[in-house]
Design goal:
alpha/beta, eight-stranded mixed beta sheet, Rossmann fold, six-stranded parallel beta sheet
């Protein structure tokens, strides 16, 4: 099968979308499928696979804006898989419509939640409405500038256009699938969490802790990912401050912090935890196993994520997880749930403290997570994904047959008349 993937997160970017796309493409290629990948690449590199799309960087942000042009793609894919609603993803939707191809879309990002934190969501919506020729009026565009219900309604209207151009939408978690009920019309929704495999890393626990100036005996709370507002670093740091009252030797290691770094340091000083905080810039995914291996618990403070790949990685590495989003507590294909708390500092700190101070609970949470990760293998994920592609192709053929039957009935009625 030939599948074309369209993603606005550039390769190597430290976010869940880029990581998910890389894992998906790797599995498909290993299984013998022909995969085309279109992601932002430096402007002068042109459209070179696997990066694909010329782009320009956004100042002070780890983002590249693609300048897509897909009219000459060869060979034509069997299925288009769209991962993001940015310029590259919209280019994929337009290409699929122009060539009458089935579309599978993974709903990686909660645009409605992110719009409160990132102005580029509104700018992207303007671009999307124009590229998709939605015929919006000036009043429609102005609604995007107004926070609250008007902006949300307009973004939902735009997202509905994405759904109407899609044959199958993939939800990476049960939380995401439930959230899609807000749409008026939906294609079939398949809940297919991404399966992530960690590479072995030769860096040992003691060596890594020494490089971070952390004693071997100190309990380590690990947080992985960005520190921008939607990830709620304020909740993480406030919770860690309360944890230090009960576990004063604990250390907090935040991996992947590039943007908002100064603000994180300021928040840490205000909370009185700067001495116990270690900030680590984004590291290659191949080294992440070492960080999971040297920590004692993963703290997941975000309530806006649609999947939380780092939780899957931590569980696969045998690291207990505590999260502040009960909606993401459900594990892939499992009845067991992760240890979750209310999204407030006292509750989150209490959950972390329980895992760090109760060896039996620590062991039970770790074992349940590892068992869930082992049960949901890469083969399971690949099988579900290929089934979704085949379903989308069948749905497209049925649409063609229905359209043909409707046209035939219309011609017959005109002839009879």
């Amino acid at each position: 099968m030939r599948i074309a993937h369209f993603c606005d997160s550039h390769p190597g970017r430290s976010d869940g979308v880029a990581t998910s796309v890389a894992a998906t493409v790797s599995l498909l290629r290993a299984a013998g499928h022909e995969v085309q990948v279109y992601q932002p690449a430096p402007l002068l590199r042109g459209r070179q696979e696997p990066c694909g799309v010329r782009s320009v960087p956004v100042p002070l942000r780890n983002i590249r804006v693609g300048l897509p042009h897909f009219s000459g793609m060869r060979p034509v894919p069997h299925v288009v898989h769209v991962h993001t609603p940015g310029p590259v993803g919209i280019g994929g939707l337009r290409y699929a419509r122009a060539h009458d191809l089935p579309v599978v879309m993974t709903w990686h990002t909660d645009l409605l939640a992110y719009s409160a934190h990132f102005m580029e969501i509104q700018f992207g919506a303007v671009h999307a409405a124009q590229r998709l020729a939605l015929g919006w009026t000036m009043r429609d565009y102005l609604r995007l500038a107004r926070s609250g219900t008007e902006r949300r309604a307009q973004l939902l209207r735009l997202a509905q256009e994405f759904m109407d151009r899609t044959n199958v939408v993939i939800a990476p978690s049960a939380k995401t699938a439930a959230g899609l009920a807000e749409f008026e019309r939906l294609p079939p929704v398949w809940t297919v969490p991404t399966s992530i495999q960690l590479a072995d890393c030769p860096l040992g626990r003691t060596e890594l802790r020494r490089s971070l100036r952390i004693p071997d005996t100190a309990p380590v709370v690990l947080a992985v990912g960005g520190a921008t507002k939607e990830k709620d670093p304020a909740l993480l740091l406030a919770s860690f401050a309360r944890l230090l009252r009960h576990v004063p030797t604990a250390r907090l290691v935040m991996v992947g912090v590039k943007q908002n770094r100064i603000n994180v340091i300021r928040l840490a000083r205000q909370a009185g935890v700067a001495h116990a905080l270690r900030l680590v810039r984004p590291v290659p995914h191949s080294r992440m196993a070492a960080y999971y291996g040297m920590a004692d618990v993963l703290a997941f403070a975000s309530t806006t994520d649609t999947q939380g790949l780092v939780m899957l990685e931590a569980e696969a590495a045998g690291l207990p997880v505590v999260l502040a989003d009960a909606a993401l507590a459900e594990r892939p294909n499992q009845d067991s749930k992760r240890l979750s708390t209310a999204p407030d500092a006292d509750s989150f700190a209490a959950g972390l403290a329980k895992v760090l101070t109760d060896p039996q609970l620590h062991r039970e949470v770790a074992e349940a997570g590892r068992a869930a990760a082992d049960a949901y293998s890469a083969e399971h994920y690949l099988g579900h994904l290929l089934a979704a592609y085949q379903y989308a192709q069948t749905a497209k053929r049925l649409d063609h047959a229905a359209a043909g039957a409707s046209a035939g009935a219309s011609r017959a009625a005109r002839t009879a008349g």
